[in-house]
């Protein structure tokens, strides 16, 4: 058997206690419902993020730092859609995992790599938002070279943590319901090394990034409440820049909130499974957070489009759309991170 099954004398991983670890523990009807749900989510996510990627790289000019960060997030979300969801859908329809241990490891690695990359991208963006809103002298810190270094850090960070289970520190294993794979959270009960692995993953890939995101937006909210009068004394151009930064910050907050809402229930269930008693989380209950987490990659394109539509509709309701119709012939998205490059006072536009 796999080396992770003999970490401790007498230790048997929960996924081996029910016989075949890759046989579905759900009813056939439950598997079909899960497969259809993930199929719809996967198609919407792939199409939405693929469109964002296409529209971003279609620009003839060199991509600006904000566009690089947005493109990076879309690539991670697109990757998790096309590399993982087909495995889950096919296996759910078949009522068992069809791809063996090697497929399980690849599936677990891809899901963790792209999921971690998305979270760290949003962490970098949220900290950039914090510096731009709370420290006015911060200005244009994220220039192209800084953006490229940030992207390199994000990819290396995600690759490092996703690859550790493949080289012996931790492992990937089947989910309790059998038709999907994830980090082997149960190693926390097997050995000290397993505990160190689980605790490190939780801290560096969830608690620390989430803490930075929460800190950044709490400080932004406090700053906005205390600086309303200060903004009223700005000249017109500074007011427009401030308004632009606040719009971008709201988009970033929505994106981060959507991601955390999708993943935190899964993280809670995983922690309970890792440190709790066997069957502390019933199998049918464990499926729901998993399905919710797999929908996270779908939210961002929807947020871009909804906010874009909201602003366009607002302009129409104010009878401004007709006079400015030519300005919006090409699709526009909101960037989750934008530079403070000055724009004309009467033309505060946001591009992704």
TrEMBL record:
Subcellular location: Cell membrane
Tree of life domain: Eukaryota
Record's bilayer topology term: Multi-pass membrane protein
CDD domains (alphabetical): 7tmA_Opsin5_neuropsin
Keyword Heme on entry: no
Gene Ontology MF term list: 11-cis retinal binding; all-trans retinal binding; G protein-coupled receptor activity; photoreceptor activity
Keywords: Cell membrane, Chromophore, Disulfide bond, G-protein coupled receptor, Glycoprotein, Lipoprotein, Membrane, Palmitate, Photoreceptor protein, Receptor, Retinal protein, Sensory transduction, Transducer, Transmembrane, Transmembrane helix, Vision
Broad class of the protein's primary localization: membrane
GO annotation, biological process: absorption of visible light; phototransduction, UV; visual perception
Keyword Cell membrane found: yes
GO cellular component: plasma membrane
Matches recorded under Pfam families: 7tm_1
Domain (G-protein coupled receptors family 1 profile) ranges: 48-304
Bilayer-crossing regions: 32-57, 69-94, 106-127, 148-172, 192-218, 251-276
InterPro entries: GPCR_opsins, GPCR_Rhodpsn, GPCR_Rhodpsn_7TM, Retinal_BS
Family as reported in the entry's similarity comment: Belongs to the G-protein coupled receptor 1 family.
Protein name: Opsin-5
Originating organism: Pygocentrus nattereri
């Amino acid at each position: 058997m796999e080396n992770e099954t003999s970490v401790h004398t007498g230790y048997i991983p929960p996924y081996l206690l029910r016989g075949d670890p890759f046989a579905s523990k759900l009813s056939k009807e439950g598997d079909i419902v899960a497969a259809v749900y993930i199929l719809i989510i996967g198609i919407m996510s792939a199409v939405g993020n693929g469109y964002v990627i296409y529209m971003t790289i279609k620009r003839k000019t060199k991509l600006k730092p904000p566009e690089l960060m947005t493109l990076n997030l879309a690539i991670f979300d697109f990757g998790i859609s096309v590399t993982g969801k087909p495995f889950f859908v096919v296996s759910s329809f078949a009522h068992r995992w069809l791809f063996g241990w090697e497929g399980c490891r690849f599936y677990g690695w891809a899901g963790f790599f792209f999921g971690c990359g998305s979270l760290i991208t949003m962490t970098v963006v949220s900290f950039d938002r914090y510096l731009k809103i709370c420290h006015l002298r911060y200005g244009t810190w994220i220039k192209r070279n800084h953006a490229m270094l940030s992207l390199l850090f994000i990819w290396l960070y995600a690759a490092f943590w996703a690859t550790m289970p493949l080289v012996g520190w931790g492992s990937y294993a089947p989910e309790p319901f059998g038709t999907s794979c994830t980090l082997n959270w149960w190693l926390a009960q097997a050995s000290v090394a397993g505990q160190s692995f689980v605790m490190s993953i939780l801290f560096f890939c969830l608690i620390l990034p989430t803490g930075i995101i929460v800190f950044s937006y709490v400080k932004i909210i406090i700053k906005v409440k205390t600086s309303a009068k200060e903004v009223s004394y700005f000249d017109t151009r500074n007011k427009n820049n401030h308004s632009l930064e606040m719009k971008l910050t709201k988009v970033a907050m929505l994106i981060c909130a959507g991601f955390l809402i999708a993943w935190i229930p899964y993280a809670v269930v995983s922690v309970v499974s890792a440190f709790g008693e066997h069957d502390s989380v019933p199998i049918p209950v464990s499926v729901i957070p998993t399905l919710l987490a797999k929908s996270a990659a779908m939210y961002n394109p929807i947020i871009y489009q909804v906010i874009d539509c909201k602003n366009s509709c607002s302009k129409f309701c104010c009878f401004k759309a007709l006079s400015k119709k030519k300005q919006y012939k090409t699709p526009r998205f909101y960037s989750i991170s934008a530079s403070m490059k000055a724009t004309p006072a009467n033309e505060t536009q946001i591009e992704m």
